[in-house]
Specification:
6 helices; globular; hydrolase; FAH; Fumarylacetoacetase-like_C; Fumarylacetoacetate hydrolase family protein; hydrolase activity
Length: 284
């Protein structure tokens, strides 16, 4: 299933796309959130949704983040060998873990705001994994049982905040609008092999990232099992699995976002998203 949410920020409704047509699903489901996953929402949709009973969604509706209010966004850094090399980092022996604040989440076609005082805002196309039920101390063999589905994520990053201001990476990862996610949550049954997906990103129509999840250093079962040794993963949580080479930091000289730049990105089977970078403006 291809699940999406539509409407204005804070007032999104759940939807489902069937054969390229978007339908409202709010007559069956309140929202795609932790309660939905924990109470068998995916199974209910599969069994009860009928396009003949549903209203079509207008093509001009805003598309929001496909999961409502995830408890956390856990990210894996340096998970592609060539990206680790372009970042000047050693190949990690264990997954590099950091968080993005959930306040950074925004829709897949919303603008990305270059933060106040930013000079080094960067792009990162990533495969996001959405957790479908609580995972605690799970084995690699059973880890995929905890996956609800997948989504496209642009892990927007401010490199000065991240790398030059001391402390942890979270400061450079959590600015408002720094986590465009979607357009869909594609359920795992739709994706034959999540470890063989092309993912790409264009900046102003120039392809800068073009990789494949087959290049993961740590695959999805390893990442889920590893994280579950340190924290419980809750239904609706998002794990972002790292980015391939081609980020702005890796160019010589480095390239960073400026107002008016357009990022377009996608992953096989998961759709595409598109964001325009805009300058920060003071309120009022």
């Amino acid at each position: 299933m291809k699940l999406f949410r539509y409407g204005q920020p804070g007032a999104e409704k759940p939807g489902i796309e069937v054969d390229g047509v978007k339908y409202d699903a709010s007559y069956l489901i309140n929202d795609y959130n932790e309660e939905f996953f924990n109470n068998g929402g995916l199974e209910k949709l599969r069994s009860d949704f009928d396009p003949d009973d549903a209203v079509k969604v207008d093509e001009f509706e805003r598309i929001g983040v496909p999961v409502s209010k995830p408890g956390k966004i856990v990210c894996i850094g340096l998970n592609y060998i060539k990206h680790a090399e372009e970042s000047g980092s050693d190949i990690p022996k264990e997954p590099v873990v950091f968080f993005k604040a959930t306040s950074s989440i925004t829709g897949p076609f919303d603008s990305v705001v270059i933060p106040k005082n930013s000079k080094k805002t960067d792009w990162e196309v990533e495969l996001a994994v959405i957790i479908g039920k609580e995972a605690s101390y799970v084995s690699e063999e059973e880890a995929m049982d905890y996956v609800a589905g997948y989504a496209v994520h642009n892990d927007v990053s401010e490199r000065e905040f991240q790398l030059e201001r001391g402390g942890q990476w979270v400061k450079g990862k959590s600015c408002d609008t720094f986590a465009p996610i979607g357009p869909y949550l594609v359920t795992k049954d739709e994706i034959a092999d999540p470890h063989n997906l092309r993912l790409w990103l264009k900046l102003n129509d120039e392809t800068l990232q073009d990789g494949n999840t087959s290049d993961f250093i740590f695959n999805i079962p390893k990442v889920i099992s590893y994280l579950s040794q340190f924290m419980s993963l809750q239904a609706g949580d998002i794990i972002s699995t790292g980015t391939p080479e081609g980020v702005g930091l890796g160019f010589d000289p480095p390239r960073y976002l400026k107002p008016g730049d357009v990022m377009e990105l996608g992953i096989d089977g998961l759709g595409t998203s598109k964001q325009t970078a805009v300058a920060y403006k003071e309120n009022g």
